[in-house]
Give the backbone structure.
Amino acid sequence: MNEGSPSFHYPASRERVRDAAGDHDAFDQFVVDSGRRPSKELQVERTNQAPPPVASRLGASAALIRRAVRAVDGHTVALETSYYPADLAAGTELEGPADISAGTIQVLAANGHVQSGYRDEVAAHATAPDEAAALGVEAGTPALRTLRTVWSQQRVLRVTETVTPLGAGMVLWFETGAPAPAAAQG
């Protein structure tokens, strides 16, 4: 992968609590490790009415929402909207509007909520007007929508919706088992 290439491979299946906090969250660290430049615009808000599909997964309607428009080398690649149960987010860094360099997974783990698993639901999606505006594409642009439900041994910790317009250059990469040898990294 080189600077001129518009595509970026994101090994989404490797999201986890890392052994040591880094200077970047998991997504941004993968970008940096590939020799690219990550950036994002963040927005944080609270709601008492999370969308029904999210509320049913969270087991609560009250949520803290962290929204990020993510870019690689200045090119927008995804709109990521994460919902956290309000009681888990209360009093943590999650409530602040600043980037969390260690990542939100680390914040939850440090507060006793260690991620033990997650499920991804990936489907074709047409961008809604608000998504399209954030992503800099036309409304109705074909996209992939990934809905990730994350849990600990006790409860659901987060639901994240990621919308990636087709042609934005992000390739989701899912692996099972141990990390692939260097020759298989493609």
